[in-house]
Structure to design on (293 residues):
């Protein structure tokens, strides 16, 4: 679907609010402690058991969905060493996630499994998006793993319990293959990705790095009757009265019955809104002049 340009519709998107560093720090502290309290009280519901790598395919022979994404991307003004460090960070985190067994009614929580990414654990400075720009933070780059897991989950019968979107669109599209806003952002520990198994069969998450790509699969022990197609039903740039542009889109999911290929449901997945940090008209012209588009 092509881009559209729309004027602001009153009441749909508030003016950007700038909060003091102290307020942001205290708010972050409050939500981190709140998350720790929930983990303590509800720990029996969170997935913890890891299936050994050599047993994953044997015990869970059916893979529901697979996906991969390149670890290295050309991003304006982003030093390449941050992407080298991201690969290290992903390698450390996946050791806590690869093979996680998600039994019926259990919840997968990214941060519950990975824990706080610290220098002591071997994590390096990587790129982390913040307030419309990027900063170097220990453990930066783990959002790529959340993006992968979230996208795969949308193609499975599992339920996304918690997912956060980016508030800013920082970089123009570069060889984008998935719809805008189809990822998930992270910030330890209160901005999490959580997935619940509301089915009656177990699932295993298989994550690995190969040929500079992050790879993933959701696997299970028997076939499921449905398949899924995720698509973008709306996409536009909106000029805001406060200045600047927002980028908006709507992502939906069609559910097919495998035996007949009949569409049994067409579900709203999410509606994304992000402040743009580049000129949308320039990006649109670049796309028109790009013979690969």
């Amino acid at each position: 679907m092509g881009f559209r340009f729309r004027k602001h519709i009153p009441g749909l998107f508030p003016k950007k609010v700038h909060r003091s560093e102290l307020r942001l720090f205290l708010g972050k502290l409050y939500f981190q402690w709140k998350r720790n309290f929930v983990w303590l009280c509800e720990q029996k519901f969170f997935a913890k058991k890891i299936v050994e790598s050599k047993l994953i395919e044997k015990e869970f022979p059916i893979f529901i969905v697979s996906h991969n994404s390149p670890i290295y991307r050309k991003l304006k003004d982003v030093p390449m060493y941050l992407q080298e460090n991201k690969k290290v960070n992903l390698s450390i985190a996946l050791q806590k996630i690869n093979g996680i067994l998600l039994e019926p009614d259990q919840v997968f929580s990214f941060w519950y499994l990975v824990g706080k990414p610290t220098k002591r654990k071997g994590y390096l400075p990587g790129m982390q998006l913040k307030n419309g720009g990027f900063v170097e933070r220990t453990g930066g780059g783990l959002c790529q793993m959340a993006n992968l897991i979230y996208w795969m989950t949308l193609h499975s019968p599992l339920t996304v319990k918690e997912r956060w979107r980016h508030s800013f669109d920082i970089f123009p599209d570069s060889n984008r293959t998935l719809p805008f806003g189809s990822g998930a952002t992270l910030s330890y520990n209160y901005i999490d990705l959580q997935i619940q198994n509301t089915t009656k069969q177990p699932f295993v998450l298989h994550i690995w790095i190969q040929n500079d790509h992050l790879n993933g699969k959701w696997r299970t022990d028997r076939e499921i009757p449905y398949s899924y197609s995720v698509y973008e039903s709306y996409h536009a740039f909106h000029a805001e009265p406060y200045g600047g542009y927002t980028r908006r889109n709507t992502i939906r999911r069609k559910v097919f019955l495998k035996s007949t290929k009949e569409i049994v449901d067409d579900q709203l997945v999410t509606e994304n809104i992000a402040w743009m940090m580049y000129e949308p008209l320039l990006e649109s012209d670049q796309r028109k002049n790009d013979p690969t588009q």
About this structure: Confidence is low (pLDDT under 50) at residues 1-5, 7-13, 284-293. Residues 138 and 236 are 34 Å apart (CA to CA). The longest strand covers residues 262-276.
